[in-house]
Automatic annotation (TrEMBL):
It comes from Menidia menidia (Atlantic silverside). Its main location: secreted. Residues 1-26 form the signal peptide. This is Corticotropin-releasing factor-binding protein. Transmembrane segments: none annotated.
Amino acid sequence: MRVMERTFREQLFFLLLCLCVLKGDSRYIENNDISQDELFSFFNSELKRETPDVLMYRRPLRCLDMIAVEGQFTFTAESPQLNCAAFFMAEPNQVISVDYDNVDIDCSGGDFITLFDGWVMKGERFPSSQDHPLPPNRRYVDYCDSGPAGEGARSSQNVAMIFFRVHSAGGGFSLTVKKHTNPFPCNVISQSPEGSYTMVIPHQHRNCSFSIIYPVALDVSEFSLGRHSGFSKRSLSGCPETGDYVQLLGGNGIDTSKLFPITDLCISFTGPTHMKIGCENTVVRMVSSGKFVSRVSFSYRLLNSQELQMIKLNNVEDFCFNNRV
Ligand SMILES: *[C@@H]1O[C@H](CO)[C@@H](O)[C@H](O)[C@H]1NC(C)=O
């Protein structure tokens, strides 16, 4: 049933993109109806197709696109294209730069290209405004506002995107996407439904989220706070009071501040912890006071359909299944 639903949604997906109309004076196409399933099925086929074996990979950019490789991407409007978006993604320890090469759009006629530092889906942002170093309005860089040079930008994490609109046929632009090493990755969207990751926050007062946009089995193998690792086993009356802790969150959107808390791990954590989470988005979020070098290691894999079914049957109250649309 789920499979059928997906196929149906994939078809809908393209329809919606053609048909959806921007609300009011909203300049940004944020109320997109793109679900994570749809995006990722698109993305997986994209990964298989794109093998960057030439010096500079080049291909046309589609009105709805997912780009996980470096290269030059050219959009040309064959007819007015009013609601376009391209999602960029890199490895967890990379950030993405997007630079314009040739731009032929009519800014005064209402065309635009806007870079966003993160992803927006159905009006929700990743990273959430709480966890992003920049205030929300500074995460948008508008080509038309940034002068004739049309500055590109570099993302703060492994995902970024552009929204664009081109009214006249023949108009368009090229952009070059590059990936750069990020020595201290904080917020991350996992490229795949399985893998392992160690999140480290070195003496920084900030919070970082690792988001897995699939229902997964998650194993937390290690959690430590600097020297205090395994030091204190006394029971504390709730994690937040210790200042540093790890949250496991789940839900069906991408804004981590709107997800449901599944459990908190704090200094008394003796691990390992194994959990199956039937949500469309599973997040490991670390809250760091900056007093320690905080570290959490975990691995994850996709839940199969039997496991999902079991969770569904066993947890009548399960928030993820109950909130599924
Ligand atoms: C980190 O998250 C906690 C709990 O969500 C919040 O109280 C705190 O202000 C956040 N810290 C920073 C630096 O954003």
